[in-house]
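Q: My labmate handed me this sequence with no annotations at all. I'd like to see what the chain might look like in three dimensions before we decide whether it's worth expressing. Could you predict it?
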Amino acid sequence: MSKNNLTFESENIVVDYLSFKFQHLEDWKEKELASYLLKLGFNCYKESGKLRKPIKTPFFMGLKNIHEACFVVDNPYWQGTVVTFSGLSAKFFYMLLKEKKLRGKAFSDSILGRFDIHYRREDRKTDKTLPEDFLEACHKKVRKTNQNVSFEKNQKGLILKLGNRKGHNYCRIYKEKTSLKFEYEMKGQLLRKYHSLLISNCLEELENLMCEGFLHHFGKLLPLEESFTDWLVVKLRPLRKQKLSFATFHSHYLEEKKILYVVTISKLRAKLRLRKRGFRVYNLSTSYLSSEGFFRISKRI
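A: Here is what I predict for the chain of 301 residues:
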């Protein structure tokens, strides 16, 4: 059953954060990686994971570079070094991978630690409710079936958090300028299947899987009747049609097998009844239909 693969571009999904965990990144190899990233347009910094507000120390710098890569040491949950790319730098890193200007093998000794993507739903004049009211309504409805949900207010405004930050996936929804931002954070075992795809540059398959995961995850969590989930309803519709078609195919197949089984058993039972009544059954045939079954028969002499 053929289907069109989803892509970040087709679904308006943006790469927002990337991190790679190195177990043993020796000094010479660290400098080699930083030098390579510098040539690609990244200024490299070092920072400590112990500090609540890390201080970035310049490591490898270029005057014309506008993107950043951070080499984080002393991590609380990882003994090695974590190389992170955030915001526009993560988007730029992924673009280089896609254009095959960056060697994925440079990160082959690492583990994909975290991968964040997001979708922006732009405000419309036709919206019947405010984004703040939507977030509050979502919080009330999701809380009935999901305890890992919180509704908070920070300096940037209201933010709805779905899931456990330490879990394999975590979501945030909040207002940002003239749009509502839907963030999806992936890490841990969830990323194992994506790591090899990323390193080997099989990005079409990676994007298709991630887009489906993103849409299905938000589709299960959020009330789809709300105005600010209209984009999600539209994007889920073809996926659910494919799933329905696949399920219908299996349903028809199983029904046919069931009918075949019933007909076969009926034939065997009819055969026995005919023999008991003195008929000689020569062969099976669908050409002659009798009340006793699909057989060509003659009376025993």
